[in-house]
Structure formats: C-alpha cells, structure tokens
Automatic annotation (TrEMBL):
<dbReference type="InterPro" id="IPR046960">
    <property type="entry name" value="PPR_At4g14850-like_plant"/>
</dbReference>
<dbReference type="GO" id="GO:0003723">
    <property type="term" value="F:RNA binding"/>
</dbReference>
<dbReference type="Pfam" id="PF20431">
    <property type="entry name" value="E_motif"/>
</dbReference>
<protein>
    <submittedName>
        <fullName>Putative pentatricopeptide repeat-containing protein</fullName>
    </submittedName>
</protein>
<keyword id="KW-0677">Repeat</keyword>
<feature type="repeat" description="PPR">
    <location>
        <begin position="3"/>
        <end position="33"/>
    </location>
</feature>
<dbReference type="InterPro" id="IPR046848">
    <property type="entry name" value="E_motif"/>
</dbReference>
<dbReference type="GO" id="GO:0009451">
    <property type="term" value="P:RNA modification"/>
</dbReference>
<dbReference type="InterPro" id="IPR002885">
    <property type="entry name" value="PPR_rpt"/>
</dbReference>
<feature type="repeat" description="PPR">
    <location>
        <begin position="69"/>
        <end position="103"/>
    </location>
</feature>
<dbReference type="Pfam" id="PF01535">
    <property type="entry name" value="PPR"/>
</dbReference>
<dbReference type="InterPro" id="IPR011990">
    <property type="entry name" value="TPR-like_helical_dom_sf"/>
</dbReference>
Amino acid sequence: RASKDHYSCLVDVLSRVGRFEEAYKVIQAMPEKPTAKTWGALLGACRNYGEVELAEIAAKELWKVEPENPANYVLLGKIYMSVGRQEEAERLRMEMKERGVKVSPGSS
C-alpha cells in the first residue's frame, strides 16, 4: 500500500512535468486526506507553469492545514503576479494581514 509520501512524490513528479490534471486526479483518489506536502508539491509546480486554477485549489487546501504558514500565501501571490493578476495578489496580501499571517524579512 502506498504511503502519503508516495502520493506526494507522485504528485510532485507529475506536476513538475506539467501534467497537472493527472496530479490533481491522484490527489482526489488518495485513500487518506492529502497532506500539506502533497498540496505544496502541486502549488510549487503551478508557479513554474502559471497554472492559476489548480494553484488556487492547492493554496486553499494548504490554508486549511497550515493557516499560519506565509509561504503558501506568498507563492500564490507570486503566481498571480506572474500572470498579470496584480489586484488578486494585492487582495491576498490584505487577506494575510487580516488573518495576522506575517512574512519574515527575506522570505518573500
């Protein structure tokens, strides 16, 4: 039986080569709840390809399990900026502020 780490690795490999739909199907088919590592693998690769739709899904799932982790907000913000969606990136910064999520200097 595959472990959560096996699923995370599979999602990482698929998404790194741009096979996002397959990676997302793997996540949906997992017998256990996906971990932050799994969602993070998808979100990280979405940045390289400008894949906004799945990035938003991954970020929302990450916020459920790691609501105080600024990296998840920052990464989605960078994805928004890379595709010219500055208003959404700014909205995300405001949301972080409202939630009290702080970014350490040098980490964004």
